[in-house]
Amino acid sequence: MRGRLPGWLAASGVLAVLSLGLPWSASTAGTGAPSRVAIIAAIALVTTGLVRERDRLLSAAVLVAAAGVLIGGVGPSPGRLSLAAAVACLAVGLRRTGRRVLPGR
């Protein structure tokens, strides 16, 4: 039986939403960064995966959010670090409950 991930999932969600409001560069908040599409897509994948109980969507959310971290460069900014922490929380939560972190067969 797989465990639930409420704590890890809550931390991941809060960090992902927080990353939208934090600066991603000297002049742009996360709402102006191109990675916001990846953030919203990852949140939608997690929500759909939990509602429909599809672990593959949760694993896909890890990849989509990780791509969001890399979109627009790799400089250490508060928004990018917050999103990276959200990805880490989601991955650790999936791993600790026995789910796959990366999509597979």
Task: Tell me about this structure.
The structure is a single chain. With 105 residues, this protein is mostly helical. It is built from four helices and no strands. The chain has helices spanning 6-21, 36-52, 55-70, 78-96. The model has no long low-confidence stretch (mean pLDDT 82).
What radius of gyration results from the CA coordinates?
Answer: 13 Å
Shape: elongated
Terminal Cα separation, in Å? Answer: 20 Å
Total number of strands: 0
Biggest sheet record: none
Percent helix range: 55-70%
User: Helices and strands, in N-to-C order?
Assistant: HHHH
Summed over residues and divided by their number, the pLDDT gives a mean of 82
Q: Give me the number of helical elements.
A: 4
Low-confidence stretches: none
| Class by alpha and beta content | mainly alpha
**Beta-strand content:** under 5%
What characteristics describe this protein?
mainly alpha; 105 residues; 4 helices; elongated; single chain
